[in-house]
Amino acid sequence: MPRHSDFGTRNHSAKHALPDDPAYIDFPRSDGDSDAWPKNTTRVVDAEGCVNYMQPVGLDESLSIKWRVGVADIMASEMKLPGKKPYVLRDWPTGYRMFDHHKGKAANPRHDAYLFGSKSKFRSVPEFAPHAIWLMGDGSVPCNCKYCTKKPQREISSAMGLRTSSSPSPSRPVRPKPEKEKELKKEVLTKPRLADRLQSHKTYAAVQKVLNLPKVSPHIQTKNIMLVERNNNLRDACRPISEGSIPRWFREGELVWCALETPIVKPELGGDTIKLWPAIIDEVKLRIDPQSLPHEPVSADEVSTPWVARQSTAYKVQFLAIQRSYLLPDTMIASQLSGFWCLTDDWEAKLALPPAVRPPPPPSSLQSAIELAGNNNANIYSSISSGPRGQGPPPPPPRIVNQTRFQGLWWGGERIWADDLVRLKVPRSCLAPQGAQHIFAPSGPGNKSRLLAESRGKDPTLYGAGSRGVFMKIDTIFIVDGVGKRECRVTGMLYELADIDWEDPNLPRNVESISSNGVPATAVKLPNPSSFRGLLCTAARPQCLISGRYYPRILQHPLMKPTLNEVIPLDRDSMISVGHIWALEGLFAGYKNAVDPTFYKASREKMVSAASEEAMVAIQQHIDDRRQMMDVDD
Q1: Is 416 helix (H, G, I), strand (E, B) or coil?
Q2: For labelling, which of 110, 329, 362, 374 has a CA lying 20 to 30 Å from the CA of 71?
Q3: Boundaries of each Cryptic loci regulator 2 N-terminal domain copy (predicted)?
Q4: What pTM, to 2 d.p., does this model score?
Q5: Cα separation of 44 and 52, whole Å?
């Protein structure tokens, strides 16, 4: 088996040159396409002093020469090319090009070599060598590279005799170890063993306080696998918030609006002002800011800390339409909507269905009826005489079926997981307004709301939960079988908003998923002055009825204050005119402020790409319309 030197290392600092009098290899065909080349080839330093771009590498640069020599060496050995001259690739296959990925701090970024052009990018010489050998043939034999065979690279390298670890070879002689490495090794050998050193030191551990999480809903299958990202997002939704801080509302990959510190003003366009800019969240970071406390007299023996640590959330976002990323505080982020959706993280659920009991067919004649009655009597007599009463054949086992379920979905710009609390479009008055067998009637007004309605001469029943929205605690996400168009369904417990001082005539009731005060198992921050009330109904609803995720205390966001100041104090007309604001807290039906995606995409990347294309068309149309408005006839 031929053996080759290690070409998988990522040392770009070494200088490589073409050998003397080489024999060149030309590719007779290619599967390359320049459209597969990366687009982010411009060096941009972000706010944190980092870069992330692809730099094209010339054919005669050291990195390209290293690959050209390494790939040709493997090809010559595997294809048993004649001659003793060293082989070199004359050029890359048509449509191929090498790029150096710069990522990290701008002063000292990490370098990774990639060869683009095929359907998949190649990261090393051993990865590309089997594909290069396949390009030398006519295509009748399948390619043996890792991307075409779906095999691990270690298995392919072992079959070709490629060494994956550094070892001496004719093309790379043994280098003597520097004196510094020898001294370091000697120092390590003379030090006492690690176990002996650890025994002579005391170990101090900081114990984190146990987080009191809400009780698990009985509708949740706790034995199912949960993604780490989903677990973290749901825990953040339940985590208590310190005074004056904002909850971690937004999640990685979501589309949001970012407030600009300096609004963009265009006087030539009639004074239009751009105050917000769309962006996609790349990363969510925890921010800790120390704040000084007022000095208070304390005794000499008492220890006092003159500061307190305030935690907040910072979002690293990628602004759309420009190649800039920023780290913004949570006070400058607001949610955004779009028109596409997709499902993520599917898994197979095993469901046990009870066996169907088929009634016996009716007798076709009087003689058949007499024979059937005789057989039944004989069976009854046999069961009584041969064993205990009621003992019969065992029931058939339940039928096990598999159902594809999903842990989450992208609903427009929002990331929604199973176990999230979402708003529904339907108002409470349209959902069993008089009550039903498995659902309560809407709760009435509390004492304060009733007194307010009577003082204004209004009907008190209009101030109850019937005029508000409906919430769902999602338990299951699945696709409807047997339909032509892809349709998703969500199931879960339904909740309404009831006044805190409203007395429920149905209490006490024994429902495990609802606590004694009517709060669902999510334990999220409740809208004030209302509380969640379970409707005792686990429903299955099409995903089109979802308005969006519920954001606790969203109306207290700093970006909402200017809008709220314009509509407060409230009257009936002003309250209805800004119903889209109150719908965020469930005080109005969800259809007043709803995410309404209609087009399904297979992945988040395709959603963003399609939305970008539509946005470019809309912007161009807007520019054309403004240009026509500014044209003046002679």
Answers
A1: strand
A2: 110
A3: 87-148
A4: 0.54
A5: 7
pLDDT by residue (tens digit) across 405-453?
Answer: 899 999 888 999 998 999 999 888 888 888 888 788 888 888 888 888 8
Task: Give the pairing type, strands 399-411 and 255-266.
Answer: unpaired
The pLDDT tens digits of the residues spanning 45-68 come to: 998 899 999 999 999 999 999 999
CA 578, CA 129: separation in Å to the nearest integer? 64
Domain parsing of the chain, residue ranges: 23-160, 228-293+309-338, 403-600, 604-634
CA distances to 368, 370, 372, 380, 381 from 375, rounded to whole Å, are 11, 9, 5, 9, 10
Pick the closest to residue 585 from 517, 475, 496 (CA basis).
Answer: 496
User: Following CA atoms 490, 493, 494, 498 in sequence, which dihedral angle do they give, to the nearest 10 degrees?
Assistant: -150
CA 219 from chain center: how many Å?
Answer: 23
pLDDT at residue 169 tops 60: no
Rounded Cα distance between 370 and 378, Å, is 12
Per the structure block, which two tokens stand in for 82? 């004649």
Q: How far apart are CA 24 and CA 87, in angstroms?
A: 6
Q: How many residues does the chain have?
A: 634
CATH number of 228-293+309-338: 2.30.30.140
